[in-house]
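Protein modeling request. Please complete all fields; requests missing the sequence field cannot be processed.
Requester role: graduate student
Desired output: 3D structure, token encoding
Chains: 1
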Amino acid sequence: MRRILFRWHGLTVWSYPALLYVGLVVGLVAGNAAAHVAGIDARSAYVATLVLIPLALVGSRLLFVVTKWPAYRHNFRRIWDRDDGGAAMYGGLALALICSVPLLSVLGLPIGAFWDVTTFSILVGMIFARIGCLLNGCCAGRPSQTWCSVRLPNHLGVSARRIPTQCLEAGWAVVLLVLAVLVWRRLPFAGALFLVVTAAYAAGRLPLESAREPEPGAGKITVYHVMSAAMILLSLAALTVCWHQ
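Delivered output (245 residues):
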């Protein structure tokens, strides 16, 4: 575990925020390149992404807080305490999707094409973010003696042979990114790439969620299992309806 990436002239650079920032920047570049390929207004898409990123970060934090509400209900200041980590990507995606509807209407951007482009930003950002998780020890895998287990610490610094869930999720994002590049222009309608990748990511997240180290007292089925299943069903339903139309 390397929570502190480096120190420079008295400045401490923490691993997870640094990798998250790098992921956001590189994701913006990837999204801008994809916007040019898609033939949509790249400048407007860039502005929309810049507006949606902080909303996604807020949504990610809020979902994390909701899932751990007993720890926050008596101390609201902890919710936005920068020293109190924790975020859930599904919350960020949900809030960004909702807020994108009026925003894209104002900017004159087609929703389907924009989210196809943003798919590349999300996948690239996810790769770097999961590397940050690995260095920080968060989202650690459950202890295991299987052949693929690696000695890794969790967020408390407890080291053990674990399923390397952060690496596996980053690898899954790489696979989805490569597949997205290959199939994007072959899909039948704008928005299909986003729906396909969302369903595929959620399908991969189901076993990965089970491989994570469980919270004390948690059951086998978590809220993220339920959300992953819901995302698969909603994405496939939207694909079916849009395809027929």
